[in-house]
Design brief:
- The strands form four sheets. This protein has a five-stranded antiparallel β-sheet.
- The chain is 29% helix and 16% strand.
- The N and C termini lie far apart (59 Å).
- It folds into four domains: 8-113 and 122-151, FAD/NAD(P)-binding domain (3-Layer(bba) Sandwich); 159-204 and 215-246, no CATH class; 284-387, FAD/NAD-linked reductase, C-terminal dimerisation domain (Enolase-like, domain 1); 397-499, no CATH class.
- The chain has 502 residues and is of the alpha/beta class.
- It contains 15 helices and 15 strands.
- Strand 1 (8-11), helix 1 (15-26) and strand 2 form a beta-alpha-beta unit.
- Residues 278-394 form the CFAP61 dimerisation domain.
- It comes from Perkinsus olseni.
- This is CFAP61 dimerisation domain-containing protein.
- Pfam families: CFAP61_dimer.
- InterPro entries: CFAP61 (IPR038884), CFAP61_dimer (IPR056299), FAD/NAD-bd_sf (IPR036188).
């Protein structure tokens, strides 16, 4: 039973903050006893590389998902206060938490609430102003009386782990530094995960001779799939321990402290270490059960260059009713090459995460002209659209093998066509506009007719071989004449023109 006099303050913009609120509500804590305090936003792009506490903001400014969740919170009675910084934790005479002190940004309006308790008694759960205004540019001091404080405003290193790192004299620069085989400076100690960062010597210096900056964007492992990082760690350990797979890397010829392998950020040569870093391609996934029993999924492709992160297209459908929890909010971002780079979902129904991961990195052309259909109002909900029969092949466990085979078939011939088409462009048009339909049509015109026939033959063979798992009969030789079967084959043929330009 929750103490009616106890209030809980949750501080932070992390996804954990919102999940904690749902956890409290699930344990029958009254929503009016919960206060969410949001600190000023922090971005990876605005903090120094040596900062040990990484920002964990779940949503960017103006994110529609954040707005919907805040609407849910306020509708059920949870108080939400933004742009306040936690400064002091107050204890009573029995060394128990009794209040937290917060600082508002200078120049902001007073956020305090009117006390409504008996005179002379502390008012719990209310944001009270405690500082007298002397200068309008000075920050405002506030206080909230509470018994429970949950913080989720940043990820830092566990003190016990940090002590172990120091005791073993390992290199720690905001994160534990490892090489391409996940080895620390002590070759017998391997490490991987959100605490770790690859050595900066693997980053090429700019050709202009400028200083290398923003290492954590590509070297810190918290932006990669944890499952994939674990897999690469296991492979690295096997490579080092298995005598039959011993290589120059495993034997230590690529020394972590060898001066010849270090990269000088000021060097104009811009040469990085010859040993490549592990490749990470699986999407980074964030999931959680949010207030209102809403399931949240966000998947993003790691390691994209800055210009690639700028979405060339954003596809959105929104029929979510936050009051009843029915419907879905779904957003797909497409990068400059026409591939799905980010997927966001909020709704009352859980999704199959494995299928969602399969969408990331897939050319948007696979989705049967979905962007235009959404813009024209033909598609009301992306999730329901992807559950149609035509999309079943996209989630088949052998579909990635098919696309890889299509991209590899007659690869050199296709590359020669692409090179000839772009030789007078110097890449600037593609870099600015991405892979457009006009560019694809130009490339198609240069390809021989046998190329499309070859692709069609491979697709037909795929449908015949896997017909038992697809929602149509592909056993007959004339299966391409059926409307329903054409519905499945047509988008697959359309998108293969994108596959060969990867």
């Amino acid at each position: 039973m929750w103490n009616p006099l106890s209030y809980v303050v949750i501080y932070g913009r992390a996804l954990d903050s919102y999940c904690a609120i749902q956890g409290l509500l699930g344990r029958l804590v009254p929503p009016e006893k919960i206060v969410l305090v949001l600190p000023p936003r922090r971005s990876r792009d605005t903090i120094p590389d040596e900062d040990e506490v990484l920002p964990v903001d779940a949503f960017a400014e103006g994110d529609p998902v954040e707005e919907k969740i805040h609407d849910v919170l306020m509708s059920i009675g949870v108080r939400v206060h933004s742009n306040l910084t936690l400064t002091v934790v107050e204890l009573d005479s029995r060394q128990r938490l009794c209040a937290v002190e917060l600082t508002g940004l200078a120049g902001e309006e007073d956020k305090s609430e009117e006390p409504q308790g008996p005179r002379g008694t502390p008012v719990r759960g209310i944001l009270e102003k405690v500082s007298k205004e002397i200068n309008p540019n000075d920050p405002i001091q506030y206080k909230i009386t509470c018994r429970v404080l949950i913080t989720a405003d940043g990820h830092s290193v566990d003190p016990r782990i940090f002590s172990a790192i120091c005791a073993n004299q390992l290199v720690y620069d905001g994160r534990l530094i490892v090489d391409h085989l996940f080895r620390t400076t002590d070759k017998s100690i391997f490490a991987a995960g959100t605490l770790c960062e690859f050595s900066r010597r693997y980053v090429k210096a700019p050709a202009s001779g400028g200083k290398v900056t923003r290492f954590h964007q590509s070297l810190r492992q918290d932006g990669f799939s944890g499952r994939e990082v674990g897999t690469r760690l296991a492979e690295a350990i096997v490579k080092c321990l298995d005598p039959e797979r011993s290589t120059a890397e495993a034997s230590g010829e690529v020394s972590f402290d060898g001066a010849e392998n270090d990269v000088d950020p000021q060097s104009s040569a811009g040469q990085s270490d010859s040993s490549p870093l592990p490749a990470f391609s699986r999407p980074h996934v964030s999931t959680g059960l949010l207030p209102g029993l809403l399931h949240y999924y966000k998947l993003a492709i790691p390691g994209l260059e800055d210009y690639m992160k700028l979405a060339s297209d954003t596809i959105v459908t929104d029929d979510l009713n936050v009051t009843s929890g029915t419907g879905h909010f779904c957003q797909i971002k497409v990068d400059k090459l026409g591939k799905i780079s980010e997927f966001t979902y909020l709704g009352g129904e859980p999704l199959e995460l494995q299928n969602l991961c399969g969408l990331l990195g897939m050319p948007v052309a696979y989705l049967n002209n979905m962007s235009k259909k959404c813009a024209d109002g033909q598609v009301k909900a992306i999730i329901e659209y992807l559950e149609d029969n035509w999309a079943k092949a996209l989630f088949h466990d052998r579909f990635t093998d098919l696309t890889a085979a299509l991209a590899g078939s007659e690869k050199q011939e296709v590359l020669d066509v692409i090179k000839a088409a772009l030789e007078n462009d110097s890449g600037s048009t593609v870099r600015d506009k991405g892979v457009t339909d006009d560019l694809i049509l130009q490339l198609e015109e240069r390809l021989p007719p046998s190329w499309e026939e070859s692709l069609k033959g491979r697709l037909e063979e795929f449908l015949r071989s896997n017909g038992d798992h697809l929602p149509l009969n592909v056993g007959t030789t004339s299966f391409l004449e059926a409307d329903q079967q054409q519905e499945l084959l047509k988008p697959m043929l359309d998108h293969d023109r994108y596959a060969v330009t990867e």
